[in-house]
Design a protein that fits this description.
Layout: H1 7-18, H2 22-29, H3 34-43, H4 46-55, H5 58-67, H6 70-79, H7 82-90, H8 94-101, H9 106-115, H10 119-129, H11 136-139, E1 145-148, H12 153-164, E2 173-176, E3 182-186, H13 188-193, E4 211-212, H14 217-226, E5 231-235, E6 241-246, H15 247-265, H16 278-304, H17 307-312, H18 315-318, H19 320-344, H20 352-381, H21 384-414, H22 425-447
Parallel strand pairs: 1-2, 4-5
Antiparallel strand pairs: 2-3, 5-6
Amino acid sequence: MEFKVSKELIQQLEEHIVNKNDKELEVLLNDLHHADIAEILDELDFDEATYIFRVLDSDKTAEILLELEDDLRENILSRLSPKEIAEELDELETNDAADIIGELSQEIKAEVISEMLDVEHAKDIVDLLRYDENSAGGLMGKELVKVNENWNVLTCVKEMRIQAENVSRVHSIYVVDDENRLKGRLSLKDLLTTSTKTQIGDIYIRKLNFVNVDTEDVEVARIMQKYDLEAIPVVDELGRLVGRITIDDIVDVIKDEADKDYQLAAGITQDVESNDSVLELTKARLPWLLIGMVIEIVASFVLKGNEEIFKLHSTLIIFVPLLSATAGNIGVQASAIVVQGLANGTLKEFSRAYFTKEITVSMISGSIISLLLLGYHSIMYQQYLVGFAISISMIVVILFAATLGTLVPLFLHKNKIDPAIATGPFITTTNDVFGIMLYFGVAKLILGV
């Protein structure tokens, strides 16, 4: 059953904090999962959260740190001494520890590293800090099990037992040569069913997916998703095994990328959360709103430039909101499907077949909408030529919106710009301007104005 924070639990914890009943706090919290405790701490104020954090053992609080909201984690870390932070990091895997220490100032970072008891662990963390956080090197952990191709099975098993003590989950057994270059992987079944005298070089599997330290995190996620991998090894420029990336690290990447794309599609220019300050939320939202305002002002000038035709045929102006909404929806639908295809790998670049399919779908949709619009206009206003002009204009505008929605994300992707930008305000506001221009342009041709 999923844990839920209750008001009664929060009140109980607050009472124990006020009365400094540390043992009671431990009894209440020790059996809870670290993610549940993090959820509880998010409900308390900073002082109360820090108090509980100090009461619990470091093997528990280290995992809690990873689950906390950024502002709460930052606040708690600011109240801990370098030695206390070092104790937390000693309990974490290298990639998680590197993420935490990367949030600290350079001065505090150096002090924390110097306070760490496990020197090898500290060296591994320092090594990870030199990689870009959005690369495979920034994602990977140093904890893994590797064996030498020149060992026999008996030696291999002995070494694996030693290495496995520092690895929480053994997804794969990697095989390297004397220079630590990745050669392949070892099947557990082969290891268990083969003679102890057999050389590892005779039984390991040479076909293996791997990534380079500089591979982008989203590309790592795509590869792991494509091949359904729980973990993937990481090599350096010389092909040496330097770490591994596990599925839990990739889940975070996928979630972060989805959040970013969703916010870009909504016209939010930077990563924000609902609990961010008013200023941060305003800074994230305002840029696209201002751009939209400028574009819509241009649209108003386009309308003003066509005053003559809608003075002669007033019903034309009535359908401008319908035109804008329909074109915007078509454009957003088209761009959303393209962005989805680019994200999951089903669409990599411009495809004539796909473009033709999208235009065909838009043509069918536009024809149905235009026929309904023609019928409605004919019944309501009995101006058949004007109704015909509006209907044809609607088809043209819909085809333009579909073309824009399909091609713009592909263009952005080709130029290394996140195509999610094209799925929100950009498409709708751009369609407003060009849609209105096309609408009145086609109407003028048909009506001979």
